[in-house]
Every structure is written in C-alpha cells, then in structure tokens.
Design goal:
With 482 residues, the chain is α+β, with helices and mostly antiparallel strands. It is built from 15 helices and ten strands. GO terms for molecular function: heme binding; iron ion binding; monooxygenase activity; oxidoreductase activity, acting on paired donors, with incorporation or reduction of molecular oxygen.
Length: 482
C-alpha cells in the first residue's frame, strides 16, 4: 500500500476568528468590546495559537490585507529558504505614502533611490545592493568601536548626574536611552556627534531629537490603528510628515558636509563618506534616513529591556562583570573586545528571545504559496510570530527560564530551533544595520555593567507594544557605583 500525500487545503480551510458581516475582524481590536488589544498582541497571539493551532488567519481588517499568523518554526524556515531574490516585506503604509506619493519628487528623482524601508521588488534590490557593499563589509561597524564606546561613556556620566537621592533612574529613563541611541546612530549614519545629552533648545540637534520622537510617537498610532489618515490628513499624520521632512533635511545637510570633506581630503573615512563615494549623495542620504527610521527605537528599547532584565538577576550581572573585567582590565574598549565576551552576547540573545522588541517578522506573498499545508493566496501578509515561538518549549528547552548558556553550549539534548528567534530577520531582507546595532547594544551593556550594580525594587513590569515590545511604565533602576 502506498502512502498518499495529503492534498493541500484551501485558504478557506485555514482556521481563525470568524469575521462578522460589515465589521469583519476589526471590531475585535475595539477597546472594551472586542477582547483583542494592539498593545497586547503578544497575548493575543498566544491565545490564537492555543485556540486554532500553528497557522491562523485573520481576515476582514479595515484598510489592511488578510493576515496569516504562523507559529511553526520549521515552516518559517521552509518559507524563508524558498524565497526569491526580492522578498516583499509588509511595509509601513504611512511611510510608503510619504516616499512614493507625498515626496515622490525626491525619492523618485534618481533611479532605484527610494531606500529599503517601504520599498519592494527591483527598486529595493538595486538600492540594497548599492548600500550593502559598504554597510555589511567586515570592518564597517568595527571602525566605530572607540567612538561608540565614547558615546556609552557619555551616557554613563549622564545617568550618574540624573539619579535621585536613592540612586534610582528617573521616570523618563527610556527617553535618556533614546538620546543615547540617537547620539550613537548619528555618529554612524551622519558622521557627527549631536550632543543629545546637553543640546540647546534652538539647536539642530534638538530639532532632530524632537522630530525623531514625534516620528516614533506617531508611527505606532498610524500603523496599528484604523488608517483614518488615508481619508484625510489627521493632525497626527501632519505632525508625522513634518517630522520626516525635518529628519530628511538634517540628513541632507550632513551628506553635503561629507561631500565637501571628500573633495577636500580626497578620500573617505566614514560610513557616510563611503556611501557617498560608492553610490552617490542621494543614496547616502536615503540610506541614512532609513537607518534613523528603524535603528533608533528598536535599539533603545532593546537596551532598556536588557537593563531591566539584568537588574532582576544580580548573579547574571556578576558573571558578566567578571567576564568584562577579565577582557578589558580597566583599559578602554578596542575593536574585537566584545568577541571575547561570549556570556554578554548570550545574555543579549536570551533577552531578545524572550522579549523581542519586534514580536513578529513578516512577508507579503508575491505568489500563491503553500504554508502549513494550506494554499495561501498572493497578497496575504504572513506574520512569523517569533515572540510565541521563542517562548515555546517546542523550540527551546525550558523556554520560560532565563538561560544565556543555551546560546553558548548547544547540545543535541537541548532544543534550539534557529528560526524560532530572529531579532534581525533573515535572508535578503535581514536588517542592514545589524552589525551597527549589535555594536551599540553590546558596548553600552558592557559599560553599564562595568559601572554599576543594577537592582529593581518596584512592581514587576508587563510588556506592551508601543510600537516596540517594551516594559510598560517607568524603568526605575537602582544604580550603585562599583
């Protein structure tokens, strides 16, 4: 008797919450009525998997394509490995509108120059090819080790000066971490120090700081709520556009400065100058803009989450401190030091597994595709839910336990699925700034542990989507000088 492969089931057969006539499934996200919450999409997805299994469809969402949530890491691997040369990632509709409609004169003035965020197909592929030769080169991030460490030192001094009488960080500590992230990224993307920790009110630095903050406050609302901005320019949407215009204009001014320095010196010495030399000033400006839009909020929320989790675990801190002390021996950091700190890197990976700042990775299908045994139609947004998979015993042994060692001493006896936790994505659309983000995160965590013993003495914090997955509430850490 031959085994007969089960036939592929149709899209209609995929389980999921049933949409109502006219209201679809949008009503489920209405406060006090629906039971689903955007802020708690982590818990929503846990409940969806529990009720419907490893493949769940969500249809009838106002202004959005149908969605498919996938909670099977092996299926994630199969889809990723089968991708074509230009995967389509679900874009931010508001940013897509800004680049391709509102400011198409700028982003469309030069061929293949709209960037990698909210761009797809041949345009995306051509732009990424131009930028990746520079951004993903082996020494691209390493050359910033010393200046990034200097920014981290400035952050330490800032924290020392704003602690209260109980040695605790202020309620707006996350805002200080945002400033650190902006300072670090401006150093890398714009080749300049903004002096975010003491910028004057009328400075270009403060204009950029305010614009970046406005962008991040707006983008979550515009992307996660009903898209009323598509019908008329809401106040928030107008603020969002003004913020993007400011970020773009400041970026362009620094690209012009980089051009002048290249002409004066005859050579490039930074990422920005390398991009100008390799791909031209407009590509360099758009690449820097994209780094700002996706590199500040993600990195700062990751650092805030890591510091909070370390503050809950003094023994983990002490082991990390011993490792750091052994490597640095009271000297300044230099390129390659973090590679001698496997426990520090493992702790960062473990926090990102349990509390990923981006809870899911996505694709918008460019062709009909079989996923989990179902024929999923072209145009569907497929969300690979890494928060759920990363916290599942199906893919990690004792997934609910904080065990950095799982990243250091892998063994056949320990479950560890490579595609269950992907904080920087995978494949062709993996984060272009990954090397820089890791350098920033590892460096500031190293400096914080080296400088302070961290404790947390308040109510445990829940995590919310804001729009990053981050501790909800003031992060008041007790920081005692070592």
């Amino acid at each position: 008797m031959f085994d007969v492969a089960p036939s592929v089931k149709s899209w209609e057969d995929v389980p999921g919450p049933r949409p109502l006539p006219l209201l679809g499934n949008t009503w489920r996200f209405t406060p006090y009525i629906g039971g689903y919450s955007v802020e708690h999409i982590d818990k929503v997805c846990l409940a969806l998997r529990e009720e419907f299994g490893n493949c769940v469809k969500m249809t009838g969402l106002l202004g959005r394509p149908d969605m498919l949530f996938v909670f099977d890491a092996s299926e994630v691997e199969r889809v990723f490995r089968g991708e074509d040369a230009a995967p389509h990632r679900p874009s931010m509709p508001s940013l897509n509108y800004y680049k391709h409609t509102l400011r198409k004169d700028f982003f469309g003035a030069e061929e293949n120059c709209a960037g990698v965020i909210a761009v797809h197909g041949d345009q995306w592929s051509a732009f990424r090819t131009k930028v990746s030769r520079v951004a993903l080169s082996a020494g691209a991030a390493a050359q910033y080790t010393v200046p990034v460490a200097e920014v981290a030192d400035a952050f330490i001094q800032r924290i020392r000066s704003i602690r209260n009488e109980d040695s605790e960080t202020p309620a707006d500590f996350l805002n200080e971490v945002h400033k650190w992230s902006l300072e670090s990224l401006s150093l890398i993307a714009l080749d300049t120090r903004l002096n975010c920790f003491n910028a004057s009110e009328d400075s270009e630095s403060m204009r950029l700081i305010d614009a970046v903050q406005t962008f991040f406050l707006s983008v979550g609302e515009l992307e996660l709520r009903a898209p009323w901005w598509r019908l008329y320019p809401t106040k928030m949407f107008r603020q969002y556009v003004a913020a993007l215009d400011t970020i773009l204009s400041v970026t362009l001014s620094h690209v012009e400065k980089a051009l002048k320095e290249i002409k004066a010196n005859g050579s490039s010495k930074s990422l920005l100058q390398d991009l100008v030399t390799a791909a031209g000033p407009r590509v360099a400006a758009v690449a820097a803009l994209d780094l700002f839009l996706v590199g500040i909020d993600t990195t700062s929320n990751a650092v805030a989450s890591i510091l909070y989790q370390l503050a809950l675990r003094p023994q983990v801190q002490e082991r990390m401190y011993e490792e750091i002390s052994k490597v640095l021996q009271d000297r300044p950091m230099k390129p390659g030091d973090v590679n001698q700190m496997p426990y520090l890197k493992a702790c960062v990976k473990e926090v990102m597994r349990m509390y990923p700042v981006v809870v899911g990775n996505g694709r918008q299908l460019t062709k009909d595709t079989v996923v989990c045994g179902y024929n999923i139609p072209k145009g569907t947004q497929v969300i690979f839910q890494h928060y759920v998979m990363g916290n599942s015993d199906d893919y990690f042994t004792n997934a609910s336990e904080f065990r950095p060692e799982r990243w250091m001493n892998r063994s056949p006896a320990q479950k560890h699925h490579a595609f269950a936790s992907l904080p920087f994505g995978y494949g062709k659309r993996m984060c272009l700034g990954r090397r820089f983000a890791e350098l920033e995160i590892h460096t500031v965590i190293c400096k914080m542990v080296q400088a302070f013993k961290m404790e947390y003495h308040h109510e445990p914090m829940d995590y919310h989507i804001h729009p990053m997955y981050t501790p909800n509430g003031p992060i008041r850490l007790k920081l005692m000088d070592r």
